[in-house]
Amino acid sequence: MGKVVMYGSVSVDGFIADEDDRPGPLFDWLLGGDVPFDDSGALKVSRESYAYTRPYWDGIGATIAGRHVFDLTDGWDGTPPAGVDHVVVVTHRPPPEGWDAEAPFHFVDGVGAAVATARELAGNRVVEVAAGDVGGQALAAGLVDEVRMDVVPVVLGSGKRYFGSVHAQHLLEGPDEVVQGDRVLHLRYRVRR
């Protein structure tokens, strides 16, 4: 089985979006570089960010996100983001009316079921858990192997927290990797067991 990784871009004060779910400049590092990140040409990053991030993104077999993110993105129009094969959506509600049942999205109730489903779908590839409430729930349940964060030099002051509503202490190892990109610091930690 592949490892389960909690991932997201984050402000230096620990937020992944403001109170209105706007990320502000948290993704600017994906636009201001000189290396095309994918075939679209829309994303361009620094060489350091490309060398660190591209292999990770290529290794993702399934992404886990909450229903809130799914709804905010309009379900990515039925196409998983960043070339991921499958998206597992944690929700207590059924798929939206008229949703294409053939789209590679799987709707499950609870983070435990989401991780189990995503592991099965991903095989030996990485299971990515979006930062925020769902990621925090997975971390609190002991289901996360690694935390990766792209720390952006901005202070949001308030908003949606990287670890969601986790209030208990969780120890991490390392950092195992620290890579400085252009307007971003990439960090990777193993979760201490």
UniProtKB/TrEMBL annotation:
<dbReference type="Pfam" id="PF01872">
    <property type="entry name" value="RibD_C"/>
</dbReference>
<dbReference type="InterPro" id="IPR002734">
    <property type="entry name" value="RibDG_C"/>
</dbReference>
<dbReference type="GO" id="GO:0008703">
    <property type="term" value="F:5-amino-6-(5-phosphoribosylamino)uracil reductase activity"/>
</dbReference>
<dbReference type="InterPro" id="IPR024072">
    <property type="entry name" value="DHFR-like_dom_sf"/>
</dbReference>
<dbReference type="GO" id="GO:0009231">
    <property type="term" value="P:riboflavin biosynthetic process"/>
</dbReference>
<feature type="domain" description="Bacterial bifunctional deaminase-reductase C-terminal">
    <location>
        <begin position="113"/>
        <end position="169"/>
    </location>
</feature>
<protein>
    <submittedName>
        <fullName>Dihydrofolate reductase</fullName>
    </submittedName>
</protein>
